[in-house]
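Final report, Chapter 2: Outcomes

The project's central promise was a pipeline that accepts a single protein chain and returns its three-dimensional structure in a standardized token representation, suitable for archiving and comparison. That pipeline is now operational. To close this chapter, we reproduce one record exactly as it appears in the project archive, with the input sequence first and the structure output second.
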Amino acid sequence: MAAAKATTPDALGTGRRKSSVARVRIRAGSGNITINKRTLDDFFPNVRDRNDVLAPLIQTEKRDEVDIIIRVHGGGFTGQSGACKLGIARALKQYDGELEEALREQNMLTRDSRMKERKKPGLHGARRGTQFSKR
């Protein structure tokens, strides 16, 4: 029977933003980030979205110390990048409890609760009414 190798357990975190949900897994590594089996640059072509995803890692200076695997679905690019950001922050907190203060300081552990407002009856959208007609 082979001896069990000692590995650090993976840290998990779930992030949500708008209608997007991201499941994040962090393990010790060299800084690789995989999102839906694609690289970070390939998945998020927009620099703002990439910076959003990297923000918790840069804040805690763990960018080159951990490998991250993310599965994200739902919503658009902005929602998905926000969900990844929250998921990474939560997973980092589980990975190393001492990082919580630095993450909380920048509000990275707080879920953004803003959602799309529902459409109301008799209107074209949530607030857009019908066009006024004089005649």
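Archive annotation: The chain is about 30% helix and 20% strand.
This record, like all others produced under the grant, will remain available to the consortium after the project formally closes.
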